[in-house]
Amino acid sequence: MMAERAFRFGRARHLVGIAGLPPVAHGAVGVIMLNTGLMHRVGPFRLHVDLTRRLNALGYPTLRFDLSTMGDSGASAEADSREQQIRADVADAMALLGSQAGCTRFVLIGLCRGAQSAHIAACTEPGVAGAIFLDGYIYRTAGFKLRHYLPRLLSPARWRGFFARKLRQVVAPEETSFGSVYPPRGQVRGELAAMLARGLKLYFVYSGGIGEQLNHARQFRECYGHGVAGHPALRMDLLDGTDHTYTLVCDRERLFDHVEGWLRQQFPPPKTAPAG
Amino acid sequence: MTPASEPCQFGRDGTLMGMYHGVAGHAPVGMLLCPPLGQALMRTHRIYRQLATGLAARGICALRFDYRGSGDSAGDSLALDWQHCLADIRSAAAELRVRSGCATVIGFGAQLGGSLALAAAPAVGFTRLILWDPVLDGARHVAELDAWQEELRNDPLHYARPRSAADADGQWLGFPVSPHWRAQLSAWRAEPARIPVLIVDSLPEAMAGGWSPLVEAGAQVATMRPGTHWGDLHRLEHAILAPDLLRLVGEAVEQAA
């Protein structure tokens, strides 16, 4: 029998997800994957499927599911804000994995908007013990601007490109960007500090595909300061050369190795339950 | 009121994942939505859900599912196999009939989902097919996918520096591809179906050879706009929008009924 099971669950039975349920000892840490952007729970190029199955093979119970109104999930009919919905959906997901695999502590994983959803839930949900933010919040710093603009100022080719772009914008204006709006940096820094103070373990992994937002590993410290960036329960890695959604198989393998390594270190996999 | 869709598992050992969209009361007609493969599967998930929901609201039950080695179903992406896909369509059609009690099953599929629905039609007993931009010439599709993959590894919006051929080898737009699957797909040539076929054509440019050999055998073609850019490298994660699809499919099904 397949070790994955499909569920409809949640406070209004409005959520749909796939739980990976390896035979584990009670109390194992469960891993929950949140939607990437607006894509359904399978993830870009099946990233969520491949990662959760890899973690199942190590003994971690997993759940990949669709938040309210995304993928196959419906609306809960509550008049809540999106943030409240995300928190309630994650609480429902933790309850499901708790009932199916006996998990009491959870690690959230999210890419891009999924990282933002993980951040929202990790701020308040007591069951969350850790989070892996893939291309999570990062803000341009003075260092970013120096590294970004200084080489361009001295390059005639860059100036030609700049004027060509401006001309194109006049002739054919670009589509409006519907990128998400970040909360103020100070708010995010404070929330991360609060998570760390509560004992959460946090892992930030940045791809090479957000060069317009992050252009050096040291930017993380510039952005959040030593109190957060230097905290022993926080780690940050930059996977230079990859694109934002890890399109190539070798890039996904590199990401999976990092995620697995961090999980093994911070939340060692459970011992397999005795058969029968 | 239309009942909520239900996730389901079927096939040997429950390895196939699907979503069943039931109707209140008896459903004489059902539609099996055969998904495309690769990133087209991800990009059409939303429109497939909308289509199934819309059909259920019209009293037509529907089943969406993933083939082995794709989507949520069991199996690695490298394990994709044409014959397994056809067997999975047969399992899914049986599941739809058991759940709904419908006597008539219409097959629907986009891109390679359309090709597979066409190939599976005789064994499944579809009474009608609705094919959205189906792939009729496998070798040409393979050449197209190879070209997109080559373009991807050199695309400056994905990579600051071009990626090596070795990094991108054996993949099509984010998915690993086995030599076996590549050979099976290359060998695919559509043959006319013996049942009514509607082709929903949303290709931005007319395809060389048109929809031969299906049109010669009587298939009808409905043009849908705006066009669908299946291989647009900069929209690999974007849902495909097709506001007219439900209307076209709904009309075709009502005509059939």
From TrEMBL, chain A:
Signal sequence segment: none
Entry keyword Hydrolase: yes
Residues in AB hydrolase-1 domain copies: 45-213
Entries under InterPro entries matching the protein: AB_hydrolase_1, AB_hydrolase_fold
Name by which UniProt lists this protein: Alpha/beta hydrolase
Gene Ontology MF terms: hydrolase activity
Source organism superkingdom: Bacteria
Keywords for this protein: Hydrolase
